[in-house]
Amino acid sequence: MTAPLKASDTTVVNVALDDRAYDIVIGRDVLTSLGTRIAALRPGARTAIVTDKTVARHWLEPTEASLATAGIATARIIVDEGEGSKTYAGLEKVSEALIAARIERNDLVIALGGGVVGDLAGFAAAILRRGVDFVQVPTSLLAQVDSSVGGKTGINSPQGKNLLGAFHQPVLVIADTAVLDTLSPRQFRAGYAEVAKYGVLGDEAFFAWLESNHSEAFKGGAAREHAIATSCRAKAAIVARDERENGDRALLNLGHTFGHALEAATGFSDRLFHGEGVAIGMVLAAEFSASLGMISQGEAARVARHLAEVGLPTKLQDIAGFAQEGLADADALMTLMAQDKKVRRGKLTFILLEAVGRAAIVKDVDPKRVRDFLQSKLKA
Ligand code: GLY
């Protein structure tokens, strides 16, 4: 693990994908450099900014100002906030607006927002004129440390989350840590679950650092930037060795098989943010690993303790409306998990723990063991 940054530092993490390599630029106020960076990367390109209404209120004008300073023409496409835009209808709206804005092959789409905007705008860019380049400007912690990096783009199907999409890498990611100041504490915490995930899955020293420094990271400043940069480095390394998720990249799904089922059970609503589902899912994955004898109960408790300490939900019972239909039912959760993209012919693949800081891809997990485990957690 590298030493913490000074708050004034800008960090550049490269995602090493040969001719599609790109930089993640991390630091306070780096949004002001967007225009000059795009002008250097794509001289003469026009741009269209895709954003949502809330992000637009805070960050659209500074983004447009940065582009204007560099003499870059831009259009604005504003969608509604939330998963409701990550749909066929949302994709149609953005795609038609990009065509109307005359975004052509050498132009750029700019995704200014959280995970929904990044996935939607990235997918629209992937299919517009069979592929137009795009820039990610993530404005949530979750998007800065996870969804803006690695090229997964897409929309939801009425039958499941992220079931339609494409791998389409951005050409640049601008992660301005100042934009996180306008997030609600709950949104920030939800993103923090993905930060902790990098420690749990592959870096015990980073997890230990988070255990000691999480309050500073929540406050902002150098500790926050260190947490984001370390997370981006971890993700960049995994993506560089397995872009298309044929192997190691699946490790990034730690907590997601359980988490996606919980998100689906709560209707992808504000009852459970994605990161909150990942937090509960990560604890369930750790406890399931312990039930299979892969780690000790103490190690599983260590993961749960840290996430609870920062205020994240860690148990099924922490979900609002838990007792309502669909949640307190192991069979219903199993049905939802069967739609997971990691299911192969009825067998589930889980990301489980061999230690805190070492995750493993475990294939062919017997669904009965998972069901019995969930049943025990529902009674707990
Ligand atoms: N969010 C998981 C991945 O990018 O692979």
What report would you give on this structure?
This protein has helices at 34-41, 53-69, 88-100, 115-127, 141-147, 185-202, 204-219, 221-241, 256-265, 274-291, 297-309, 330-337, 367-379, and strands spanning 11-15, 22-27, 47-52, 74-79, 108-113, 133-138, 152-157, 160-167, 172-176, 348-355, 358-365. The protein has 380 residues and is α/β, with parallel strands linked by helices. The strands form 3 sheets. A 7-stranded mixed sheet has the order 1-2-9-6-5-3-4, with helices on both faces. Strand 5 (108-113), helix 4 and strand 6 form a beta-alpha-beta unit. Helix 6 crosses helix 8 (221-241) and helix 6 (185-202) packs parallel to helix 10 (274-291). The model has no long low-confidence stretch (mean pLDDT 94). Glycine binds next to loops.
Q: Please report which band the strand proportion falls in: under 5%, 5-15%, 15-25%, 25-35%, 35-45% or over 45%.
A: 15-25%
CATH class of the largest domain: Mainly Alpha
Main structural class: alpha/beta
CATH superfamily of the largest domain: Dehydroquinate synthase-like - alpha domain
Number of strands: 11
Provide the helix percentage: 40-55%
Largest sheet: 7 strands, mixed
Give the names of the bound compounds.
Answer: glycine
Q: From the coordinates shown, what is the CATH architecture of the largest domain?
A: Up-down Bundle
Please tally the helical runs, counting DSSP H or I stretches of 4 or more residues.
13
Overall number of structural domains:
2
- Give the N-terminus to C-terminus distance in angstroms: 37 Å
Q: Which term fits the overall shape? A: globular
Can you give the mean pLDDT?
94
Radius of gyration: 20 Å
Low-confidence stretches: none
- Biggest sheet, spatial arrangement of strands: 1-2-9-6-5-3-4
* CATH fold label of the largest domain: Dehydroquinate synthase-like, alpha domain
What is the ordering of alpha helices and beta strands? EEHEHEHEHEHEEEHHHHHHHEEH
